[in-house]
Amino acid sequence: MNWIFRNLRVAAAGAAAAGVLAVSAAPALALSCRPLEATDAYLAAAKSESVYNIIAGEVQFDKARLPVSHAEDPNDTPPLTRIPARLTGKMLDGRYFSQRVNVPAVLEVECLGPWCAGIEPGSDYMFFAQQQGGALVIRVNACPGFVFPDTPQVRKQVIDCHRGKACVPALSR
What we know:
By secondary structure, the protein is mostly beta strands. It has two helices and eight strands, in the order E-H-E-E-E-E-E-E-E-H.
């Protein structure tokens, strides 16, 4: 399985990583996330010492294992939940998403108080998946950053960055 990890050195800055926001709203409370795009993820990942692979595809897992914030005391919610998963799709290999993958993975799903990240099994995403030892880890954080809907715009941003074209982070715009 190590062949999958030779593709690209990319990573999350600090503890921030990937996510699709699924908020269980509490009155008068809001999670303030900085706006990130695929270019931000690519640039942050490229600066990291960790090895990442960029994969366009889907992840299968038991949705019932996703964390849910406790209404009585959201701070009782575990900050990180690890869920076994299977990742299928095409990995960015050279200039295109061309190398088929079908590998085991681990979702690391984050909760920050009443806000828990979420992701839909079987939906199309662009994953920045990190190698941790022999495991492929997909971080799904409460503030989005390293998992994106797989849209033509997201693919273009990632491919442009990878090919050395314009790769401007959203935060500097």
